[in-house]
Amino acid sequence: MKRYSKTFTATLTDTLRQQLLQWAQQYDEVAWLDSNEHVQTHGTYSAILAVDAFTALKTDADKAFEKLDEYQTITKDWLFGSLSYDLKNDVEALTSKNIDGLEFPQLYFFQPKKVFLFSQTAVTLSYLNMVDDELQEDWDAILATHVTQKTISKQPIQILARTSKDSYLKKVAAMLQHIKRGDIYEANFCQEFFSEGVTLDSTAAFWKLNELSTPPFATFLKLEQQYVLSASPERYLKKEGTHIVSQPIKGTAKRAVSPKEDAALMLQLQQDPKERSENIMITDLVRNDLSRVAKKGTVAVQELCKIYTFEQVHQMISTIVCEVPESIHPVEIIKKTYPMGSMTGAPKVSAMKIIEKLEDARRGAYSGAVGYFTPSGDFDFNVVIRSILYNAATQYVSFSVGGAITAKSIPEAEYQECLLKAKAMRQVLAQ
User: Fold this and answer.
1) Catalytic residue, candidates 29, 234, 359, 417
2) Domain total for the chain?
3) Residue 325, preceding bond cis, omega within 30 degrees?
4) Active site residue: 250, 335, 353, 421, which one?
5) 3-17 residue pLDDT tens
6) Is 250 a catalytic residue?
7) Which residues fall within 8 angstroms of residue 354, CB to CB, at 6 or more apart?
8) Is the pTM of this model over 0.90?
């Protein structure tokens, strides 16, 4: 099917960002992916907007990757959507039986009628089934959009912890026993915070979250009445031609107002043996995952335990790359590496079994991935962390946080790290 394209000169200011997203709300399907001009994303585009489904795929975990493979093969077009963490059940013989307050689909992708591709100085509009001069008319309408400032929620939002602090500490202690017995070396343990009966203005909440964090993988995803508002600093997987990049995060430190103190915190993170151990273990896991799809001898660690600085936190990130055969299907690459090692643990399957047993809520979209496929079969996906998830139909809002548990973990310190990671989401919902 033919796409019609037109390029306009454009500078992606904050005002234009808000005009785009406000204009897009007329559609049931919206994907806004924004690098916030971070150079470390190695991104092809500064930002992408996709709206209005021409076709869509929505399914549970049963044969989900097989269905996505077929969908991507048939369309050979732009596809945007989300992968739930619970697709682990399609990859391995696993189950998910915990509470699912959000009730999101486990896989949901759509083929947009309208795509906006932003570079530093221009935007290219790519439309299916264009009517008259729709490209020009839409661009004019966007630039004429009056941005209105909205309240995130008209009523106070009471945030509840699915797992009490006392229960969290006991569960981390139980996970440490699994490590002591040799069942696992490391596992990512998460907890959910939620509220019910919430009427949330999703665009207002997203802009506030983005303002607080300005992350490299910001995402506003609207799929009917379900929203992913993400300030993710982490890339799961990117494919460009035969080149694959994964950038797992393990290691977090708070920021300080004083430049001297901030630099000291960054150096402390860089040298922390526990944080480095966590990161290196997951780097090895990702290397192993990529070796399942890579050309022999091409898996390499490009950056090991490098510190990146964001608005809220310092993060320790490693970059692992490889080359894949041209014959391998893009969905197969994702399936063979899913879920991402930074959100599971090592050994991967054992960690996922223990996570399921100890966590109180089903993760769903959290610690899954949001991203896109291009018509040529390239893709780029983030990790859904530092995110607010909202089901407008059921008025349920949720955010989850977690961290890596290793033999050196101190339960109280792990709990405090969770609170640090939750700071931006809690601040947004407390408006």
Assistant:
1) 234
2) 1
3) no
4) 250
5) 999 999 999 999 999
6) yes
7) 175, 178, 183, 184, 187, 345
8) yes
